[in-house]
Every structure is written in structure tokens, then in C-alpha cells.
Amino acid sequence: MINKLLIYILTILILGACSQREVEEKSSNTINLTLEDVKTVITEQGFELQKEDLSSENFFIQELNDITPEVYILENNTLSVYVFPSSNDREKGVQVFEETTAAAELVEHKAYELSNILVFYVSDDEKIQNRLLDALQNLDIPE
After folding, report:
1. pTM reported for the whole predicted model
2. What is the tens place of the pLDDT at every residue in 53-101?
3. Which of 73, 99, 108, 139 is the most exposed place for a label (fewest CB within 10 A)?
4. Starting from the edge strand earliest in sequence, which strands make up the sheet with 70-74, in order?
5. Over the stretch 15-57, which tens digit does the pLDDT of each residue have?
6. What number of other Cβ atoms are within 10 A of residue 136's Cβ?
């Protein structure tokens, strides 16, 4: 009886350790994207990016979790790209953005979240928003 109980407990411990290792391996295999990756897929979609310096009072270019975005003009509208160290940091950045803008009346915009990247495009032009989404989906992020 005690031997069966001991074997049962050891089996549970071994299975638990194996599943924990699998979770750690998956999280370490996450590929972080770079600003260059984002710029490349956008320009390959036929867009032209113009570097821009805008007022830091703009909600879409504020610092989020110590990350300052790169800001561009795309089709006469603001495009801001945040490159976070990890997808968890990006999620925290989105949370900070939502908290700081909860009471604000924001202009029409679209947010794109991919891996460690957060992109805001400040426009209500659905055609361009969809083309931008198509471009960003070309980043081929493995699951």
C-alpha cells in the first residue's frame, strides 16, 4: 500500500516537472521583433514612412513602461511603434495606456499588438488600417 502511494506521488512529481519544463521552453522560444522588422513589412506593403518628432503630450507617443516609441508619418497620419523587451512587457504597456487614457476622449485610432511590438495608427481610414494589418501579419510570428 505504501509502495503504491509512493509510486503515485513520484509519478505526479515527474509529470509536473516535465510540464513545467515545456512551458519554460515555449516562453524562451518566443521571438522578439525589432523596429527594423516592422519597418520592413510596412514598406514592403507599399507604404512610405517619414520619421517625425511630435509633442510628447500626444497620448499615442507617450512613454509606456519606460519605452518611448519611434514615431512616423504614414499617409499623413501618426504611426507610433513601441518595441518592448518581451510580450509580457508589451501587455503591461497596453495596460498602462488603457489606464492613462480611460477618461480621455481619444481620436479614432487602431492598435496592433504582435509579440513584443505595439503599434498605434491614428486614423479612421479602414482601408489603410487593413493594409497595415496585412503588412504586420507578414511578420510570421511562430506560436
Report:
1. 0.76
2. 776 668 888 899 999 999 999 999 999 999 999 999 999 999 999 998 8
3. 99
4. 50-51, 70-74, 77-83, 117-122, 110-114
5. 555 444 444 434 445 688 999 999 999 999 999 999 987 766 6
6. 21
Q: Which residue reads 503591461 in cell numbers?
A: 92
Q: At what angle do helices 35-44 and 126-137 cross, to 10 degrees?
A: 120
Q: Which of 68, 63, 119 is nearest to 96 (CA)?
A: 63
Residues 6+ positions from 7 with CB-CB distance below 8 Å = none
Cβ neighbour number for residue 126 with a 10 Å cutoff: 10
Cell 514612412 found at: 49
Cβ within 8 Å of residue 140, ≥6 positions away: none
Contact 77, 108 (CB under 8 A): no
> 3-class secondary structure for the chain?
CHHHHHHHHHHHHHHHHHHHHHHHHHHHCCCCCCHHHHHHHHHHCCCCCEECCCCCCCHHHCCECCECCEEEEECCEEEEEEECCCHHHHHHHHHHHHHHCCCCCCCCCEEEEECCEEEEEECCCHHHHHHHHHHHHCCCCCC
